[in-house]
Amino acid sequence: MRCPFCSHEDTTVVETRDSEEGDVVRRRRRCQSCDKRFTTYEHAEIALPSVVKKDGTRAEFDPAKVRASMTLALRKRPVSLEQIDAAMERIQEKLLNSGAKEVLSAKVGEHVMRELKRIDKVAYVRFASVYRSFEDVDEFRQLIRDI
User: What pLDDT does 94 receive?
Assistant: First the structure.
């Protein structure tokens, strides 16, 4: 780690502490050249895959967009925030575990539908009707039969 005061590259760790949540490591360092002390913070960087949209454009995975879509489908349904959070965790975990650098938006939609089907069937039908662009009642009937 380079010293922020003199840019010398030789520093030593004087003290290391974990945060209360356990997701950040705080390190006090001392420069071997100018003897000044400074603090660094270390945290895990989670690299979710990029999303490839239907038109071929790429965007970073945005959990807020996925949560907003799920929340809209779950509107006025008896589902707790904890259930939504758990579903979001499972979706992100599946994306991370896939090891892929890119994922099709359709795959993200399938993950969302699977989670909605698990926590609330009505929300699942709502989301699927928009996501799959149903054009007639027969498509709804088929989806409901599949449930």
Answer: 94
User: Do 37 and 64 belong to one domain?
Assistant: no
Are 31 and 58 members of one domain? no
Same domain, 23 and 55: no
CA 27 to the chain's CA centroid: 27
The predicted model scores a pTM of 0.64
Backbone angles phi, psi at 23, to 5 degrees: -105, 0
How many other C-beta atoms lie within 10 A of the C-beta of residue 53? 13
Phi, psi of 55 (to 5 degrees): -85, 5
- Which residue range is the domain that position 37 belongs to? 11-43
Identify whether the C-beta of residue 70 lies closer than 8 Å to the C-beta of residue 118.
Answer: no
80 contacts 94 by C-beta, under 8 angstroms: no
What's the pLDDT tens digit per position in 80-89? 999 999 999 9
